[in-house]
Design a protein that fits this description.
Distance between the termini of chain A: 66 Å
Strand content of chain A: 25-35%
Radius of gyration of chain A: 20 Å
Oligomer: homotrimer
Number of strands of chain A: 12
Number of helices of chain A: 9
Helix content of chain A: 10-25%
Largest sheet of chain A: 12 strands, antiparallel
Largest interface: A-B, 53 and 40 residues
Chain lengths: 352, 352, 352
């Protein structure tokens, strides 16, 4: 007999090189696309339309790259972050195969780093998580590090091992889906005349629109991803918690910011890398999310005239418009209201 | 470089005869049907059941006619009404091909009328919008006119041109889907014994039930339609706006009223025309919507014994039951609480 | 002419042996699975993954057993319980064929018992409701009894007839889906190492997690099931009603409790019987639902080494954790906070 409920892993439970096969394979349905649209209002043509997808060489509209990310990520929560105190960062996220309805996603993680904190109560766990489809093809992978409680403060610390993390996914590591060709890309259908050639490093774009989040929305989203982190769902305990309220899943804000970024980046048709990301401050139901982006790099892709890469940094801000481009100060502190600083790389059609 | 965000069109940007191809082709998924059901509770058998649809000659259950309308309409917002002050009316709406899952919808609009207002600050734009599927078949079309801001008050007015608008779509303009035959129509499955023959002009029906609307619901609906009108989503700005709150998309109320009308009009299986419509007053989250209908006309359809047309006027009322059939008074003013006056034509099985 | 709206049936309208064919056949879509996941966060691998379903012999992931139940149940509301005062109980619920996307469900009910109450104002109606797919295969059946208003207190009472109801579905009445084989059941994918062999009668499991319910969520769920009971949707009338608020559909709580029970019963892969169920107290938006379960019986199934049956009793509790296993006292009264006492039987893989 004994307890049958999942207590989650504590810091001592992780070992360097350990591979965790996460539970709950998840088949993607057309309904996931509809719900994602209803939750964020995404308008990128590639994910909205089978006909558009076919015009650029794909068999049908792939699901939103971030929906794939959230589903893959959600599976890691019961094993990796149920006893986490903080989600510290992302690095080296790469998108491989597009995900289509009917695909079944699973996730496994490898422990690639461990370091106990000096307080002896917690430690940092680094994992490389990989999402795989039913043909064992990688759909995406990323590194995440989280601060996890120790079960027992007296247990001895592991030999510290901190992986080297790149500032950004290097150009030669970016994956353009094999069939994708943007030669016949339809700007009118996509909703913007602005192509890769029109952007330049340092350019800042205020995405203008704001979106207020409701409790029902972020909880439905987070459950859709089968993410079980307790802080998002339980007002009965959270009202006595640190914030007095349910915390919104950070990925919900990433998706909102990406959807808002359509207004200015409509042709950023595919995310190919997550270089890094930081949830700067918590968000709650009732907050209105705005976003702005800075173009960090404009890169050609080897052998391609139809498509280029833009490295983008998108900041999400709550309850304040982004006209003034609120940012991190020289002292390293973020201006009030900033909730997300997300560094990623997208594909965009070139003039050819 | 320059701004990459969409500022929307101002009154000066429209020219008579101009054709606008709207962005964001949208493939319809089974999930759209599920979400539409979850949002409105629609029970019309034709849209609920593939077996029922096949029993009346269709290949499978078409999506709700109003879901098709909202998707087609949503695409026009970024080009037509982003700078609109008011949505003034609809006319001459006709439904052509039913829409099925897997269909991809696009919308184009033709500017068919322009008239600057005497204040010199705004003008009225008339557009005929046409929704098309992936086979270039028209799925629906309608005329809409909106009041739009001028960018510059000093710009010269266009030659005024106001299209002639019919009071109602004429009988010979109604389209019965080619395959549809109601000979074997199953009243029991459909939920009502009342057929076309049982209705008469002047008849009033209180649809009895009321439905309270939540913020999460109308926002999810409006995003599902990829409708980007800002007033529906942003509490941070709307709290300082005219109403102090987010405004519910008028189409959400049309869909609620239609779903409520099942109780009394269960066999109104297909909308074939929108003759006109007026959003009489705004609605907000927390409002409870009731509806009643008046039968305006009962028309035979040429060459058909299986199906007839009913011209219906459905009024939606907030926070008050419709037992007393609240209406427009002789002075042309609507009774308090009325939020929608919608004039449309439906198909209904005949006794044969 | 005459009224066209559905007044529902009153006690006098039911006759022993009467068969009611309920309206609104409903085709199940992939979107129903997505929405169900978004509403409850269900993680049972069988319903989540086509690949997992195929590994146990099914053609694809069936929809959640309770989603099938709610859809079948919803159809009975307009005929059976529109004028009901109370939903008194369930018995003898049996699940036959799994339901897949593309299946179309219909429901019929037989009146199997009638008993007027001594007050002469109400009576109890017993119905056996049967859900059927498009091949006329039974998908599930159950007995329900409800207290219904009389239309006219003066109408004579029927001869009382109360059906004999089993305490539980007997073992030989349980149906294991024909193709299902748990020989190759994957514990890792399913998320728990605990199989049928590891449970014992009397064992109690606190499912730990809590889930707060929002108005938008329970209303979307209840509409998804096309359940039209007025008390769930209309704040305008309910604010003057017994509770001052919209009441949450009892089935929503059953589904939440089942989803929460994953944490401790992850391998309870299929519900085969509903032995009984009682909605002990009402729930409202803002309530946080917790659950715990007691194993009532562990039964082998004739001729099967791969799968066994567990009879489970799951209690849902609002706004209080279940650490102390709140229960019915010896006096027959339930401890405060308990909202559901649900007795059902599940299949679980054996060690073989």
């Amino acid at each position: 007999m004994g307890t049958k409920t999942n207590p989650g892993n504590y810091f001592e439970d992780f070992a360097l090189g350990q591979i965790i096969q996460h539970a709950t394979p998840r088949t993607i349905r057309g309904g996931d696309i509809s719900l994602y649209t209803a939750l964020y209002g995404s308008r990128f043509a590639l994910g909205s339309s089978d006909t558009f997808a076919r015009s650029v060489g794909l068999p049908s509209a792939p699901i939103d790259d971030l929906l794939a990310f959230h589903v893959v990520f959600g599976k890691t929560v019961p094993d990796v972050s149920l006893n986490a105190i903080a989600n510290l960062g992302y690095a080296n996220g790469r998108f491989h195969q597009p995900v289509y309805t009917g695909d079944t996603l699973t996730t496994s993680s490898e422990v690639i780093g461990l370091k106990e904190n000096s307080n002896g109560k917690t430690g940092v766990v680094y994992v490389r998580s990989t999402g795989t489809n039913q043909r064992d093809e990688t759909v995406l992978e990323y590194i995440r590090w989280v601060m996890v409680r120790k079960r027992d403060e007296a247990s001895p610390p592991p030999t510290p091992q901190v992986p080297e993390l790149p500032d950004a996914v290097s150009l030669d590591q970016l994956i353009v889906p094999a069939e994708l060709t943007l030669v016949g890309y339809d700007d009118v259908a996509a909703g913007s005349p602005h192509r890769w050639d029109d952007y330049e490093a340092g350019e800042k774009i205020d995405h203008v629109d704001g979106m207020t989040v409701e409790e029902a929305e972020h909880m439905m989203a987070t459950r859709l991803y089968q993410n079980t982190a307790k802080v998002h769902f339980n007002q009965h305990t959270e009202e006595h918690g640190r914030f007095g309220r349910r915390l919104i899943y950070g990925g919900h804000i990433i998706s909102l910011a990406r959807a808002l970024s359509f207004n200015g980046l409509a042709n950023a048709c595919r995310i190919v890398a997550v270089n890094g990301g930081r949830h700067v401050a918590p968000t709650f139901a009732g907050d209105t999310i705005y976003a702005w982006s800075e173009v960090l790099e404009c890169n050609e892709l080897p052998g391609r005239k139809d498509v280029g890469a833009l490295r983008i940094r998108t900041l999400a801000v709550k309850n304040s418009s982004c006209e003034s481009f609120p940012d991190k100060g020289n002292d390293g502190n973020y201006e009030a209201g900033i909730v997300l600083d997300f560094d990623y790389t997208v594909l965009m059609p070139r003039r050819g």
